[in-house]
Design goal:
Blueprint: H1 2-21, E1 24-31, H2 36-50, E2 60-66, H3 72-83, E3 89-93, E4 99-101, H4 103-110, E5 113-116, E6 121-123, H5 139-143, H6 151-171, H7 175-183, E7 187-189, H8 190-195, E8 201-202, H9 206-213, E9 217-220, E10 223-226, E11 233-237, H10 241-249, H11 252-271, H12 277-294, H13 300-318, H14 324-339, H15 352-378, E12 392-399, E13 402-407, E14 410-415, E15 425-432, E16 435-440
Parallel strand pairs: 1-2, 1-11, 2-3, 3-5, 4-6, 5-8, 14-16
Antiparallel strand pairs: 6-7, 9-10, 12-13, 12-15, 13-14, 15-16
Helix pairs in contact: 2-3, 2-10, 3-4, 6-7, 11-12, 11-15, 13-14, 13-15, 14-15
Length: about 450
Amino acid sequence: MFILRIWMFLLFLCFSRFSSATHDVWILDVRGPIGVATMEYVVSSIDLAHSDNSPIQPTLIILKLDTPGGLDNAMRSIIKRILSSNIPIVGYVHPKRARAASAGTYILYATHIAAMSAATNLGAATPVQIGLSGAPTDPDEQINQSNTNNAMTRKIVNDATAYIEGLADLRGRNREWAAEAVLSGASMSAKDALEANIINIIADDIDDLLTQLNGYAVVINGQQSALNLNDINIVNISANWRQKFLSVVGDPSFAFILILIGIYGLIFEFSNPGGGVFGLVGAVCILTALYGFQVLPINYAGLALILLGIGLMIAEVYSPSFGILGIIGAVSLVMGSVILIDTPEPAFQIAWPIILSVAISSLAFVFLTFGMLFKSRQQTKVSGIETLLGETAEIESIHEDITLARLQGELWQVQANEPLIPGDKVTVSSINGLTLNVLKQLEH
């Protein structure tokens, strides 16, 4: 009987552990601009939650949002995965003063349950076409019918409006305000959003949110069920090393600085071949930057202007033009840097202080480093066999076909195009191995 009780106690512990595992809640921290790194982090985490190989399959996933927006393709990939999820996903704008702007608004509309903390906001979801010539960049001007004659712009705005209205209909939320957020860039606070049926819950923190969600009815794949969040275990899901690496190299400013370091490293290596350290570092920086640019909307005209600018500044060193080439190169570098990232999203723009600092430091680097390198090559040789050119030697002896001359205290074999006798003064014109080619000096 005693052994039976022990077995029953162990089974109870195992069952308790198993039942608690069914009430795990995963929290994903979606902070900052939404790009490829964020998309991979969110999508892979949701995939893991649905995987049979996952050691823990959560009852609920919470996307903790604080984002200014991001790239359209990344946003749509996240939403697509949310809509296909069999696990309830809660969008939660948190902490206070956080926001779900632009792409964040679409993601919040797509989640099964939308929640916000007090003193947060959402909205400003007007899309801006990347690289669209002649399209107004200000959202109000862009959707103003009197100023918008571009058919492509209207297509983009109409598509975004229909997209967010479809999400609103799917989740039973306010579709009129959703359209207004796209068409006029409207924003709204958490309190007003709750009253306008844009979100479902206002919660102070995660504990408050989970308390309100316990027993909350949610519809998954057309089936309604109540959330059971008793005895929950909160699991914070962090990005893996690859996603963190993507987040770093995908930062436009970081990739921009890397590509410049790489270019200068290769130029310095080719200008002054040595141990290959500068060339190797340059190649690694360029390849890493190109990997970062792969996940960013790059304008290759901007990249070409950057390369042209650097080339012109180097040309200024080797072909002095009173600073004209250098100034044009600096202007080209700044222009290329401004248009390098082909999106008007502020979160993906290269900061102006970085652009100006790079332009000024590039000018200084080129003029100082390559200037000193160029001058060093123009200086008279003070060592080596080349220093003998133009020196005067005296013929010391002639034995058959071998003529010897004394130069700087050493005997050298010499050749001349005219007969020589001991005592003649000659000038070294060239050197062929260990033989001096000389010219006989005229006697005065």
